[in-house]
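Progress against Task 2.4 (sequence-to-structure conversion) is shown through the following example record, which the project officer requested during the mid-term review.
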Amino acid sequence: GFLTVYPCTASVPVTSSVNFAAGRDIANSTIATLDSHGDVCVYSSVETHLIVDITAWLSATADNAMTAVAPRRVADTRSGVGTSGRLAAGTVLEVPVGDPLASAVAINVTAVGADAAGFVTAYPCDTTPPDTSTVNFGPGEARPNNAIVAVAPGGLICVFSSTAADVLVDVTGVFSPAAPLEYLPAVPQRLLDTRATGVVGTGAQVPFDVPTGWTASAVSVNVTATGHTADGYATAFGCGTNIPDTSTLNQRVGEDNSNGAIVPVGAGSAGCVFTSSATNVIVDLNGWWVPAG
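Structure tokens generated for the chain above:
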């Protein structure tokens, strides 16, 4: 089934925030718009237990704004980028985010090839590991999730893994007092659904328009892949720029896979989604990042 996170309006938007298979623990992060009472609602298409963790909040008086960046990989235990090797069960990886002035970073964390089902938690290194999870995964699979994580002094975040696994960390946005972009929330709306227009082919990309009355520099979206017949991955990026050497989500046959992302707006006020395996692509808007002030 699926979950939809939305301000508690009279009707549920035709969007999804999390897609899950029966019997699985599946996580996703989203930037959720609050209603006038400061609440959000979560709709579920099927009966399920639900866990909600708050990792950050955005307000008009916030001290920090965001810089949208092309996704960059800062850790990959498979190849030794930012680390010396695969994480053992119950261990912590310190990850330099590449910006010592950052107060927080938007990241995508992927667990790959775990020995057993488990979870990964990303958090600032100057705190104790929180009793929350960033990614939940099964044995052997590649499972990503996005998050906004506060940065410890020295530009470090920590990643804890409950089981032995390889871990990838990609930075997609940087928060700091001098950053140029502030967040403009929206009621979730669907920007793209290729089930109505045709499957996106292997190694192809599809654009999605960014509707706004403002000059948006980036968007917060949820990207879903559905109907694929081969495993693969999808990457969201600004149209007209190089496809980053990172992933937004990982497709698994027999599942609808989704993940949130902060995507720079490219040529023609559009974002693009590249997919390594043929699949249908759905993109839902959560809000815009616009010039501060």
